[in-house]
Amino acid sequence: MKKIIAVVLFFFSLHFYAQENSLKFDKKFFECENQWVALKMNDKDPTYMLGVIYFDPYKGYVFNTMNDFKIDESNIFIPTEEQNSTNIINVVSNVNLRFSTIPEAKYKELNIDKLNEIFNTIRYDENDADDLIKKGYHLNHVGASEVAIPILEKAEKINPKANGLLFELGYAYNATKQYKKTITLLHIGISKFERNNWLLYKELIFALVFEKQLDNAEETFKNGLKNVKNKTNVAESSYNIAYGYFTEKNKKKFEEWFSITSQHSNNESQYIKNLELMKKELNR
Q1: Where are the strands (E) in the chain, listed by range?
Q2: What is the pTM of this model?
Q3: Which of 12, 148, 242, 249 is the one with CA 20 to 30 A from 165?
Q4: Cα–Cα nearest to 66, from 79, 76, 77, 47
């Protein structure tokens, strides 16, 4: 009797393993672009949403849901209804969601084909600099700057003057700690194309601080104040310079940039609160 039970449990565990691993919910939305995917309704519901993830330059990344399906005890994928004639398009930006790609061997069970026609209606052009920049922006926005970089670098080759390119690529380099690339990109970009864009000065200052080029960071800050009429969040950049001097334990220069930061923010700001803590540390 014990042997029979053991055999039953063995086959049950094999079946359970096979069903669980037919779908692997281990991909973020941007990792399964232009593919058939499944999304769990919730942990208690055995129903899965079936659809396609693609990039629309006007909406961002979208999950175009076509149908629902379940998986039976034999690991057969069973659509819950006929494929919808009207698809539901959901903008997706939640990086905590995990999707599973659909194995091609399961296409027939789900009454789906390889993706062809759907992409003929998508307005995204991978050879258009503006569309590439929009894609890079959405990837930067969800913390996927490493994925955004080759896309933005492609846009740079197509049109280095394209609107928004310098900021998005500089931001992506900074987010991935490639500060030297930021410095090279923005030194050239600011001097040639966009002298009046404070966001570029901000990213350049950030990179200079982390490359320990504090003199250049100061000069960049002052040039930005002089060249840009409409400036936002100046305190962030002066704070970063003050932080740079704090890490070098240069008390005199820290005090100078603490004062400058105070001129561009109120005493209740997080910048001032953080600098106060740094000041106490330097005065120990």
Answers
A1: 35-40, 48-56, 60-71, 77-79, 88-91, 100-101
A2: 0.85
A3: 242
A4: 79
Q: What is the H or E stretch that residue 249 is in?
A: none
Burial 200-212 (b: 16+ CB within 10 A, else e): bbbbbbbbbbbee
**3 to each of 6, 8, 11, 13, how far by Cα in Å?**
5, 9, 13, 15
The predicted pLDDT at position 86 comes to 54
pLDDT by 10-residue block (mean), the chain, 284 residues = 40 42 88 93 84 91 91 90 65 92 93 70 83 97 96 97 97 98 97 92 98 98 94 94 97 97 91 96 92
Contact in structure between 123 and 140 (CB atoms under 8 Å) = no
Q: Which two tokens stand for residue 82?
A: 């006929």
Query: What's residue 17's pLDDT?
Result: 41
- Amino acid identity, position 206: F
Cα(277)–Cα(52) distance, rounded to whole angstroms? Answer: 49
Per-residue pLDDT reduced to its tens digit, 8-17: 333 334 444 4
Strands 48-56 and 88-91: unpaired
Contact of 68 with 80, CB cutoff 8 Å: yes
The pLDDT of residue 117: 57
CB 42: neighbour CB atoms within 10 A?
7
Specify the pLDDT at position 118. 58
> Is residue 120 within a helix (H) or strand (E), and if so which, with residue range?
none
> Which of 166, 173, 168 is closest to 190 using CA atoms?
166
Tell me what percent of the chain is helix, strand and coil, each rounded to the nearest 5: 55, 15, 30
